[in-house]
Write a structure and sequence with these properties.
Elements (H helix, E strand, L loop, with lengths): L6 H9 L2 E8 L2 E6 L2 E6 L12 E3 L6 H18 L2
Antiparallel strand pairs: 1-2, 1-4, 2-3
Length: 82
């Protein structure tokens, strides 16, 4: 099935997921995300990443681990309020 999202919207969404490595400072990469600068641990980057590289940000939710954490917190809270 083809997407019904207008091309301009699709391009804008794709551009919003791109990060640029501005520079490295010690163990951190200084990232540029649409003009917002932030530090990211260098160990999270591909080993061959270098200044000026454009990275594509892809995130997903780990549902199993999320559920495990929720259950663990619920058990801690249950013990606290016994």
């Amino acid at each position: 099935m083809r997407s019904t999202i207008p091309k301009e919207s699709w391009l804008r969404a794709m551009n919003n997921k791109r990060l640029i490595i501005d520079r490295f400072e010690g163990e951190f990469a200084v990232m540029d995300y649409g003009g917002t600068m932030f530090n990211l641990p260098r160990e999270l980057l591909p080993p061959t990443a270098k200044e000026g590289d454009v990275l594509i940000l892809q995130l997903s939710i780990d549902n199993a681990t999320t559920q495990e954490r929720r259950e663990h917190i619920r058990r801690l809270m249950d013990r606290l309020w016994e």
